[in-house]
Amino acid sequence: MKKVLAFDVDQTVNVAKTPIPPEIAEVLRGCLRLFEICPISGQKFEQFLIQIVDPLVAVGATSDELKHLHLFVAQGTQYYKYTGDVDKYDADAWRQVYNYPLKEEDVVKITTVLEDAARDLGYWEEDQLAEGDEIVENRLSQITFSALGQTAGTEAKYAWDPDHKKREAIVAKCREKLPDFLYEIGGTTSINVAAPGMNKEFGMKHLFEELGVGKDDVLYFGDMTQPGGNDYPVVQMGVKTITVRSHEDTLYALRGIVGVVE
Q1: How far apart, in whole angstroms, are the C-alpha atoms of residue 56 and residue 51?
Q2: pTM
Q3: CATH architecture, domain 104-194
Q4: Are 5 and 37 in contact (CB under 8 A)?
Q5: Which pLDDT band, with edges at 50, 70 and 90, does 164 fall under?
């Protein structure tokens, strides 16, 4: 039997950049009693709290249950675990276990090349940003380009680049000037840029190490498992993977898994 259920986040357990819906939170809470649960995504830590942890707490997840939730942030280049010792949830009880930040000079290089490429192609959407939002964000171990910012509406994000062509053009232009970095297209408007090798394969290997499991112990859910997708490195590792089109697909699969195990 599998010991670990691992997930991409956007488009796999939620609508992009929104909290997981209550029905997903309920079934994931049930899974926390049976498995180690490991979301792994390009999101920053604070987004994991908003999109995954807070909805779990809202449906009654206890501190003991949350100790089975492992947050592999920025494609697993950062890892957080819950250390609260009381029944009541403590938002300050998350501990960073490791972090592999980019060098400051690389942050400057990546930030510059992303903005230059987007501006040159006419895809720098500064006029659509909400106050305080940003297009290029330093997530410590990766830099993320979000064309419309983090807080733009879901409908606008889905409409901006549904066929990935805009982001593919930005990536191609960035690689001309700065080839020695990893570029991954994810979510609806995002490009994640990191040091070579810092993709989900890196994150999954650290997951194995931190949880003391092997690839045969893990079942992974993702929506971008095709070659070039940010979930594809997991497929290449030989981890058993379920490809989903939406959180509804994931919900259906998880209900079946919980029903069989219980």
Answers
A1: 9
A2: 0.88
A3: 2-Layer Sandwich (3.30)
A4: yes
A5: very high
